[in-house]
Design a protein that fits this description.
The protein is of the alpha/beta class and 334 residues long. It contains 10 helices and 12 strands. β4, α3 and β5 form a beta-alpha-beta unit. α7 runs parallel beside α8. The protein is flat and about 75 Å long.
């Protein structure tokens, strides 16, 4: 990271864990492996993860990001992002004769399966999450007639269910743990027989990063979270830092976005990053801070992470040949 100088009394508290979670790591490697194995282009439906730098880097390697399945040419390979997609998207891909790679995070897939199971048992499902987020759209699509979105505690008053004895809550995996439980408490007050999911829906990495940022907030006058503006878990970390007592907290994609006036009167800076952020971006912020006298870096460790996920099984097949066969099949039908 180059030469760092420290000014007396100035330091950086660097959160650990931070950055890539297992689901993001799996998704990014999946795009890279697909490009290596099948060659460009590889189409990806929606950003593979919510990070500008990662998306731009993969675009330079030959990935093409699209918002609609219809944008993918017949016979091409399309990958579904880590956020997951609704069943209708799989149907669209099949209709378009596309070879698919599903890079949905396994923890998101778990929530999808829970939604399907509870819908099969005719439960009303209260999905705690943010309207319009890709993960929420995908989960809701599994059982739209059974799912009601609850976007925070303020939404609880208007929630209605068919049978208060058959209602369950699920959640988006990247939410603030504290706000989610506040929403759950409000729902339980309204629906005393509310059932909780069989296991925690909020992802382990989201929880770990929020715990770490709370620790930073105890001593830092300024907390910097590296992450993109459309990254739910990164946004939540800024909110968690402020709620935990940090006088100031800001979200930046790159070191160049830091405003030097934020450092006025600041002796301790807390630094962390969202679950879709590569370490190179954190290193750049450390260099930027060191150049301004914050060269004393202390790691604040609150958890160990050793979870890994295997790559999508589709990467073990010849998808180019499968795509060509699908197109040939359609041609023959004509």
């Amino acid at each position: 990271m180059g030469c760092m100088t420290a000014s007396p009394g100035r330091r950086v508290l660097l959160a650990a864990p931070r950055g890539y979670c297992a689901g993001v790591d799996r998704a990014v490697i999946a795009v890279e492996k697909a490009l290596e194995q099948y060659g460009a282009p590889i189409y990806v439906r929606h950003e593979i993860v919510h990070n500008k730098y990662v998306v731009r880097t993969l675009e330079k390697k030959g990935a093409i990001f699209v918002e609609r399945t219809a944008e993918v040419p017949e016979g091409a390979i399309v990958m579904f992002s880590a956020h997951g997609v609704a069943p209708v998207v799989h149907e669209e891909a099949a209709a378009g004769k596309l070879a698919t790679i599903d890079a949905t995070c396994p923890l998101v897939t778990k929530v999808h399966k829970e939604a399907v199971r509870f819908a099969k048992d005719d439960f009303d499902i209260l999905l705690i999450g943010h309207e319009g987020h890709e993960e929420v759209i995908g989960t809701s699509g599994e059982a739209p007639e059974h799912i009601t979105l609850v976007d925070g505690p303020a939404d609880v008053a208007k929630v209605e269910v068919r049978d208060p004895s058959k209602v369950v809550w699920l959640s988006q995996t990247t939410l603030s743990v504290d706000e989610t439980m506040e929403t759950v408490d409000a729902l339980k007050e309204k629906f005393p027989q509310l059932i909780s999911p069989p296991s925690d829906d909020i992802c382990y990495a989201t929880q770990n990063r929020q715990i770490a940022v709370k620790k930073l907030a105890e001593d830092a006058q300024l907390v910097i979270v590296v992450g993109s503006k459309n990254s739910s878990n990164s946004i939540r970390m800024v909110e968690v830092a402020l709620d935990a007592g940090a006088p100031a907290a800001h979200l930046v994609d790159f070191a160049s976005e830091i405003d030097e006036t934020w450092l006025d009167g600041v002796s301790t800076v807390g630094l962390t990053s969202g679950a879709s952020v590569p370490d190179v971006l954190v290193d750049e912020v450390l260099e930027w801070l060191a150049a301004r006298g914050y060269g004393d870096v202390e790691t604040v460790k609150t958890a160990d992470e050793s979870i890994t996920f295997s790559l999508p099984k589709e990467l073990r097949r010849d998808l180019r040949a499968e795509a060509a066969a699908l197109v040939a099949e359609r041609t023959a039908e004509k």
